[in-house]
Design a protein that fits this description.
globular; nine-stranded mixed β-sheet; single chain; 357 residues; alpha/beta; five-stranded mixed β-sheet; Metallo-beta-lactamase, Chain A; 5 helices
């Protein structure tokens, strides 16, 4: 059954307007603050129930039902590598009509978007630094995995803790194990790791090859793909060095999400080790091309909504920003382009720029 999913404060505690909306402190983008420095949004998604979930986190809907679009970057169901059908996993999930883009500073330090019942996407504000990385929080029955922790001292731990507490209350759980994993070791992705060190029920995996290999049981870094079960939700951990030596991609089989970090996103794809990068992209395609890939999510947006046009390096305002999501076809396009290069050169594509260093 298709239904609009939103987290709301109980109407017994707040004056409510239309069903599923709270009449509290939303800004003009249709988002609200949860009091932890996070802007919280929720999009329409496919749900197995039609009831409205409740928690202590107030949000309003900034998304639209799957298949509709009301603004730059808004999407419904994404394309996939298979035809899917009425039972396609790609019917799950939705994205906001817009992300915070730095044009309305001051804005909340972290925008929290509930992509689906079990997946949250966080974006650090451009007002806190031009990198504005995206972070991903994936819930299973036994564990929740956070990919990346941002940078510049933003209090990501409090935001994540608030999401987890609300989710536990929703499900009637007392606790859940948090596992913090970094897509790679660059500072804009690991800057908040120390905030999670020593927290109860929390494991912070190191961001070097030995630490990642040991935790996930990877013996051959450039050849093996590990499986990691969050409890009813299996992730494939794919080593993809090239942008950085300890880079990993995560493929979520449950929702068809491929998290590609800085190896592929709408922007300048900085390549440190070109031959290794090419091999990594080839391996990633080979692993997922037979899967149902619904969306490809990277960790930045640097492209405008004009094909092939990027923002200036260091730009901390992104008016007219391209949508976050890519598809399997973009990964294949990247593979074909880098494989075809006799020598690594900068090459502009509509949705990304190949940028060897």
């Amino acid at each position: 059954m298709r239904s609009v999913w939103m987290v709301v404060v109980s109407c017994a505690a707040l004056a409510c307007g239309a069903e599923g909306e709270t009449n509290t402190g939303t800004d003009s983008s249709g988002s609200s603050s949860d009091g932890t420095g996070a802007m919280v949004t929720a999009a329409a998604s496919t749900s197995s129930t039609s009831s409205t979930s409740t928690s202590s986190t107030a949000v309003s809907s900034s998304g639209q039902p799957n298949g509709s679009s009301t603004g730059p970057g808004s999407t419904g169901a994404a394309g996939s590598s298979s035809s899917g059908g009425s039972n396609s996993i790609c019917e799950v999930g939705g994205l906001p009509a817009r992300w915070q883009d730095g044009t309305r500073c001051p804005e909340e330090t972290v925008q929290v978007h509930r992509y689906s019942d079990d997946t949250f996407i966080l974006r650090q504000s451009l007002c806190t630094g031009f990198e504005a990385p995206f972070l991903y929080l994936l819930f299973g029955e036994d564990r929740v995995l956070l990919e990346d922790t941002g940078y510049n001292g933003v209090d990501v731990a409090s935001v994540v803790s608030g999401i987890i507490d609300a989710r536990l209350a929703e499900r009637g759980q007392e606790s859940i194990e948090l596992v913090v994993v970094n897509s790679h070791g660059h500072g804009d992705h690991v800057g908040g790791n120390a905030q999670f060190q020593g927290l109860p029920n929390t494991t912070v995996v190191g961001f070097d090859v030995p630490s990642i290999s040991s935790f996930f049981g990877i013996d051959n870094w450039r050849e093996e793909v590990a499986e990691y079960d969050l409890g009813g939700r299996v992730l494939d951990v794919i080593p993809i060095p090239g942008h950085q030596s300890a880079h990993v991609a995560l493929f979520d089989r449950a929702e068809g999400l491929l998290l590609t970090g800085d190896t592929l996103y709408p922007g300048r794809l900085y390549i440190q080790d070109f031959p290794t990068y090419v091999a990594s992209v080839e391996r990633m395609v080979a692993h997922v091309e037979s899967q149902e890939v619904c969306r490809v999510f990277g960790t930045h947006i640097e492209m405008t909504d004009q094909p092939g046009v990027d923002f200036d390096f260091g730009a901390d305002e992104h008016p007219g920003e391209r949508a976050l999501e890519l598809g399997l076809e973009h990964l294949v396009e990247l593979r074909d382009a880098v494989v075809a290069m006799d020598e690594p050169v900068q090459e502009v594509h509509d949705d990304f720029i190949i940028f060897p260093l």
